[in-house]
Amino acid sequence: MAVPEVKYFSVVIPFNHERTKILLGRKKRGLGEGLWNGFGGKPDTGETMGQCTRRELEEKCGIRAEKVTCVGILYMGDINGPDFHIPVYTTAEYSGQIAETEEMEPKWFDASTEALPYDQMHQEAKLWWPTMLSGKLFIARFLFEGEKVLNHNIQIVDVKALDQHIDEINQLLLGS
Ligand SMILES: Nc1[nH]c(=O)nc2c1ncn2[C@H]1C[C@H](O)[C@@H](COP(=O)(O)OP(=O)(O)OP(=O)(O)O)O1
């Protein structure tokens, strides 16, 4: 059986210092155009996920994260297409001015499940954002057929398990 192609992306969600609000960006072009999401993109060659996360945050909304924390991983498979593996980070420690960029229009939302614009987010968002907002660490697996989620599973994990997954992803990215 052929091994499916895997595409890696990062996503980072900035919180305000009180952790009552989150910053989302509406994608102005490319993958996920028109949808609200955290800020992220593909790792450059030789970059770890943590490095990618910081660079993408600055490129997409102008702020520099002092610290990012991995809170979960999205493993997405499609019966017809490539797999997407997307570690999800949060940050509440950053500097610089939030700015609209060519790719993203930023906006603060209340950090509550009810306040999120799920009808203008990736369709599986409503399945994992409540877990992320609850502060639990998670590994979420989705199987898609095109736009349709065929099945999904969200596993609550501890920091050690999550670190192991991130180490594996970094090793694959760095080719070691
Ligand atoms: N189904 C999905 N669910 C989700 O939550 N985030 C997704 C997703 N599919 C893609 N993303 C995220 C990952 C990443 O943060 C963003 C897409 O990133 P981009 O296309 O902007 O990547 P790049 O910045 O590498 O691309 P270029 O700037 O075109 O090189 O959308």
Automatic annotation (TrEMBL):
Reactions mediated catalytically: N(6)-methyl-ATP + H2O = N(6)-methyl-AMP + diphosphate + H(+); N(6)-methyl-dATP + H2O = N(6)-methyl-dAMP + diphosphate + H(+); 2-oxo-ATP + H2O = 2-oxo-AMP + diphosphate + H(+); 8-oxo-dATP + H2O = 8-oxo-dAMP + diphosphate + H(+)
Enzyme class, broadest EC rank: hydrolase
SUPFAM superfamilies per the UniProt record, alphabetical: Nudix (SSF55811)
Record-level Gene Ontology MF annotations: 8-oxo-7,8-dihydroguanosine triphosphate pyrophosphatase activity; dATP diphosphatase activity; metal ion binding
A Gene Ontology cellular-component term: cytoplasm
Top-rank lineage group of the source organism: Eukaryota
UniProtKB keywords: Hydrolase, Magnesium, Metal-binding
Domain spans labelled Nudix hydrolase: 5-131
Function: Oxidized purine nucleoside triphosphate hydrolase which is a prominent sanitizer of the oxidized nucleotide pool. Catalyzes the hydrolysis of 2-oxo-dATP (2-hydroxy-dATP) into 2-oxo-dAMP. Also has a significant hydrolase activity toward 2-oxo-ATP, 8-oxo-dGTP and 8-oxo-dATP. Through the hydrolysis of oxidized purine nucleoside triphosphates, prevents their incorporation into DNA and the subsequent transversions A:T to C:G and G:C to T:A. Also catalyzes the hydrolysis of methylated purine nucleoside triphosphate preventing their integration into DNA.
UniProt cross-references to PANTHER family, sorted A to Z: 7,8-DIHYDRO-8-OXOGUANINE TRIPHOSPHATASE, OXIDIZED PURINE NUCLEOSIDE TRIPHOSPHATE HYDROLASE
Subunit structure: Monomer.
Name of the protein in question: Oxidized purine nucleoside triphosphate hydrolase
Species per Swiss-Prot/TrEMBL record: Coemansia asiatica
